[in-house]
Amino acid sequence: MSYETNASEHPIVAFFSFIGRQKRTLLTTMFIFMLLGIFYVVTATPTYPVSVTVGENTRATPPDNRSVGLVFTRDATKVTDYSLFLYSLASHSTAETIASDPELMQRLFAREWNAEAGRWERPDGALNPVKDWISDLKGTQPWYPPDADRVEAFLKKQIVVSDPDQFGLTTISYKNTDPEFAMNFLMTVVNIARGTVIESIKADLDKQINYLASKITEQSNLSMQQALIREWNDKTAKQATIQDADSYPAIIIDIRQPGVSPVGPPTLVVVVAAILIGLFLGLLIAMVRSAYRQ
Fold first, then answer.
1. Residue 74 pLDDT exceeds 50
2. pTM, full prediction
């Protein structure tokens, strides 16, 4: 330990004696961080939280009759259409779709869009030199115009997907300073993720249709050929109507609209966390000083 102890003194007693001797340092750092926590609570921009509760649509038949909505990945792992939907909420594919919409991108990254100049610009900030230094150490760019990679990082951070509850329901949450945009963006993400599943089903159907077409031309037995043609017609009909499957694989159970008033950060939690950080930092400073004096 970096603080002095008496040979006959219990380590716990010695530790609290050390804290007593360093109480001025500890109280100072705790007070400073408490003020920082209060400052953050006062200056933080309140947001409007919204959420959508979804569940697996077990009553619907997968549009291509996939066995209980199962998808087999390259390593033969079984992935349900519903789990694919949840994964797609913050996937690169969803990010690419969002990044292809200029107006949506300008809303998401409003601070970086210069409407007058019509271009992306790095916002000014006192921490920019620090960010540049960290980026140099990591060998990365300190800033670059918003793209699919940045949107994906945004989705992974801002779109919160809860674990399924006892009824198998999942809550998808998002918050923004604009209540209308918050709801619209969340529903956009949900619909894009649902579309990803539908596109996956369409791709499977295309493979099946092409396979059946090749077998029809190869088949010489008339009855077998007619059976293959009926199957081909069935798959083709499903392909034409697949876009109507708007409740598959997830059905919306509940929608939490934005409240009348925005919600700020939890004051008590932030202040207590700030005080604890101040306590930890104060202990660290005190131990370093004690070790240096020795």
1. no
2. 0.69
